[in-house]
Amino acid sequence: MELGVGSVEGVLETYKLAIYEKDVERFLSVYDADVHIYDCWGKWESKGIASWRENVVNWFNGMREEGEILKVEFNDVTIEENSNLAFVHCAVTFAAYSGKSEEKLRQITNRFTFGLKKVNESWMITHEHSSLPIDMETGKGMFE
Questions:
Q1: Per-residue confidence at 34, pLDDT binned at 50, 70, 90?
Q2: What are the residues whose beta carbons fall under 8 Å from the beta carbon of 98, sequence distance 6 or more?
Q3: Which residues are CB-neighbours of 21 under 8 A, at least 6 positions away?
Q4: Cα end-to-end span (Å), the chain
Q5: Taking residues 32-49, what's their average pLDDT?
C-alpha cells in the first residue's frame, strides 16, 4: 500500500478519486493506522484502520452490487496547517449515478472535519468526523 501524499489538497483528491474508482487500498492509503473516525453512516465510530477498512469494503461493495458510480465534491474547504499537523473542514457532496445510464440517482452533503499529521513527508488522516445537522422537530438528519 502506498503511503499518503505530499499535500493536504492531494489527500482530498486521492479520497475523491479512490471513491470514484471504488479502490479500497487507494482510499485507505491516506489514513493513519491509528485513525479514529466518527461517521454518520453505518458504524458510529471506527478506531484503527482495520475497523475503518471493514466499513469501506462494505460501502464500496454495496456500490458495486448496485452498479453505482459515486462522485465526490468538496466545497467551502478551509485548511489550516503547519509543518506537521493540518486541520480541514468542509462540506462534502456525494452524488450517486447509475453506472449504466449515468442518471443521477441521489445526492447528499455532509459536514466533514479531518485532522492530519505528516508521516515520512506524507499527510495522513488521523481523525475524521462527518455529521449532518438534525431537524429538531423530526429528529432526522438534514441532507442539504
A1: very high
A2: 67, 68, 69, 105
A3: none
A4: 35
A5: 88
Instruction: Look up residue 38 and give its three cell numbers.
Output: 466518527
C-alpha cell at 30: 491516506
What pLDDT is recorded for position 93?
Answer: 94
Burial of 19 (0-12, 13-18, 19+ CB in 10 A): buried
Q: CA geometry: angle at 119 spanning 87 and 85, to 5°? A: 20
pLDDT of residue 72: 96
Q: What global pTM score does this model have? A: 0.89
Q: CB burial class (10 A; 0-12, 13-18, 19+) of residue 81?
A: middle
Strand 31-38 vs strand 122-131: parallel, antiparallel, or unpaired? parallel
CATH code for the structural domain at 8-131: 3.10.450.50
- Cell 442518471 found at: 103
